[in-house]
Amino acid sequence: MFAPLAVLLILLGIISIFQPSFVSGVGLEILAYQAIPILLLGLGQFGVIQLGRIDLSSATLAVLASVSVAQLLEPLGVFAPVVTILIGAAAGFANGMVISYFQVPSFAVTLGAIGVWQSLSLVIANETTVYVSENRKFIDWLDSLQICGYSAAVFIGLALAVLAWAVTRWTRFGAFVKAMGLNERAAAMSGVPTAVVTVAVFTISGAFAALAGIVLTAQQGTASASGLGVGLLLPSIAATICGGVALTGGVGSALNVIVGSMIIALIPVGSSVVGVDPRYQQIVYGVVIILAVILTIDRTKLKFVK
Known about the structure:
Elements lengths: L2 H16 L8 H24 L7 H19 L3 H22 L4 H19 L5 E2 L5 H8 L1 E2 L2 E2 H19 L1 H11 L1 H6 L4 H27 L1 E2 L9 H10 L11 H21 L6 H16 L10
Antiparallel strand pairs: 1-4, 2-3
């Protein structure tokens, strides 16, 4: 499906008319910097949405991970990022267990989880900004180590997207996820362990959210319960949808989430480059997202759009 890539190229073309140096200078590096947290959250959302579900708590969980790794770096050092990812995975596991074994809609569970993760973030951060000083080197490399102007986090995100694509395309687990997204009842009757798959997908989503939080802390050098990650929920979902992933489940590619995240990151950056009045940037943001979804959704694989 090339529609998402076409939309991205069109947007880049429009911006280059107003600012030719954007695509040849540091513009693309800035775009990648802005897109990587969205990509990581979007990859977590990708698996959940493939199931036909939603994870509203992923951005808040990224904030929890951000303050957690900032606080854990001093006592745990090199193990702080690992423990943080495990915390994110455990949070996702808890969401998945409640959804699967108590038969509660994912919307309701993850909506409630937002309050839980937000409160824990406030407690861990002591309701203040946490400045990373001790042992910062154990996460700083994600942003400071650069290849051709792009940070290590960008290449990790791309590698994980390729891995997610390979898993969904060539493994039984990927086939189970797709089958459940298309028709969960039929999948269950065919012997697919739907509860186990659901818990696994939400666990993976939590791990991706935690990794996004770690990257945010590496980029900023600080973390707080009201940090940048709070506003990443809608961009992460939008990136997944703009990548052609159907909210109804079972349709989409993890590789297109890369393109979707770049589209979403490009809109505010491009608006500033083009010279859109800040008062109208949110209007432009909303309109472009709607148009991008209209242009990228693959209707050939959907009988109904809900």
